[in-house]
Amino acid sequence: MSKVVSISEAASIALHGMILIARSEPSINVMQIAEKTGASKHHVAKIMQRLAKNNYLSSHRGPSGGFTLKKSPEDITFLEIYETIEGSIEVTPCPLDKQVCPFDKCIMNNVTNEMTLRFRAHLQKQTLDQYL
User: Fold this and answer.
1) Residue 107 is part of a domain; what is its CATH number?
2) Cα–Cα separations (whole angstroms), residue 60 to 20, 27, 83
């Protein structure tokens, strides 16, 4: 069955993982995040490494190691997390990236453009502290 909107597993792991990390005291490790999100520990590790590389997380090794936030939860938006994993959200007038439309009116009535703008705005308004 087709979905009009879908979020990649990587983006989902990043968003849910960051909330778990923000909720954890003092830290949470890859195994715990993988267990709570139902994801592969290898995929979780890869996503968390990217977030650490982009200065959202500190990584601590050892038996009591894990991840902690480098910024305050209220200073981290879902948009930042999403775009760290997926790249910038591109807002284009045409879902097919056509410069010239063969019709006088968009057959999608610009709904994809509006959905993209609303999705981006929603992610921008959401911060980690709202889920603690």
Assistant:
1) 1.10.10.10
2) 16, 9, 24
Backbone angles phi, psi at 26, to 5 degrees: -85, -25
Q: What's the average pLDDT block by block, 10 residues per block, for the chain (132 residues)?
A: 87 98 94 97 98 96 90 98 96 76 77 90 98 96
- Quote the domain boundaries for residue 28: 9-131
Cα dihedral sign for 36, 41, 47, 51? positive
Collapse the DSSP code of 3 into the 3-class scheme (helix H, G, I; strand E, B; otherwise coil) and give the result: coil
Indicate the residue type of 21: I
Locate 46 and state its tokens: 């890869």
pTM recorded for the entire structure: 0.90
The residues near 14 (Cβ < 8 Å, ≥ 6 apart) are 47, 50, 51, 81, 82, 84, 85
As a residue count, the chain comes to: 132
